[in-house]
Amino acid sequence: MNARPAWLLQALFGWLHLTLTAPSVYLWLGLPLVMRQHGWSGTAIGLFQLAGLPALLKFALAAPVEARGAGGAPRYRAWALALCLGYAAVLLALGWQELLAQRAWLFALACAAALAATWADIPVSALAIRLLPPDERMRAGGVRAAALSLGAIAGGGLMLLVQARWGWRAPFACLAAALASGTLLLAWAVRREPADAPQPQAPRPHLAALVRGWGAQPGAWRWAVLLVSYFPFIGAAWFYLKPLLLDHGFAPAQAAWLAGIAGGVVAALAGAASPLLTRRIGMARALPLYAGLNVAALALLAAAVGLGAPAAGMAAAVMCVAAAMGAASACVFGLMMQFARPRWQAFDYGWQASLFAGSRMLVPLAAGVALDAAGAAAMLAGLTAAAALAWCWAWRCSRDDWAVNAAK
After folding, report:
1. Helix intervals (H) in 96-215
2. Where is pLDDT greater, at 196 or 169?
3. What predicted TM-score, i.e. pTM, was given to this entire model?
4. Domain 6-193+206-404 CATH superfamily
5. How far lies 165's CA from each of 158, 171, 174, 307, in Å?
């Protein structure tokens, strides 16, 4: 591989993560606004999240990605190129015709898109972990968090405006074209991968052995508990934000601009800036700090909804949720890179991403049931209480060696 500067690799993987994320954001954060307009209930919107079930299989999908070529060389680049192009093809198929009234077809094709996105993310992320030096990983977490937030702007805001102006097919065509451009940039920037140091041939370990190997890292299982509790509660509030804004009296275009675009910008800025703060104060302080911001932002949003705050107050609460979400996601992604072993980047990332995806999927489903049964204020109060428990665990974990040394 021709050596590339770290900033170029950061930009490349940031763009790839954005193009991989934006379609999912459009499907699971943008379309709920359209679904609500077409009479979908909160429970139905929550059940639609089950189309993302393939994300739970990342640890299994990572196994073939770990297959080595001749001489033990990894094939992350080849997998990334093939799967990204496959994902673009699925998006074009999904946009062939409008499917809001054909829920079974929409669910099936959304599952296919989730499978493609899940599988493509594995070699792309493993390649980033492999190519970036260790001292760039927290920054890479911030870049990825910013990319996800910009994906929220594209998928949760701009694509809604494109859909309203040009119809069902246009957003999917735009998203597929962006993904294809990222694939071509990857092919140009990463010509081949560095080879691993020669090691004796050994039987390929099975999945259980790979999980045990990951768990043998100091603090891995304590981190796993934090991984499944740190982000999903603030993420669930963000998922239901656009329907909540509609119920609060905002027009659809206002909801798209506020939550999809302005909120995405704030989250991107917070995600990009938080690694600088983490490096300055250390992960031991940053970990409970960001968890505390999650609690405060959720409490503010619950109060704004429960007390019927005016539009300005609701907008301020939305911006606070966006900032907390951006900082928390950057912290999580940086630590996921830390807990990826040198020769097993794809599997270790896939395993952690499966845990993360499971909590991110189940919490919005439970929140949707709570929304229908008890209302928005009660749902947000429950998310606030759960986030407070996550803060307690983050404070305990902040004294572990892996947290103390993470940002150094």
Report:
1. 103-131, 137-153, 159-166, 169-189, 207-215
2. 169
3. 0.77
4. MFS general substrate transporter like domains (1.20.1250.20)
5. 11, 10, 13, 35
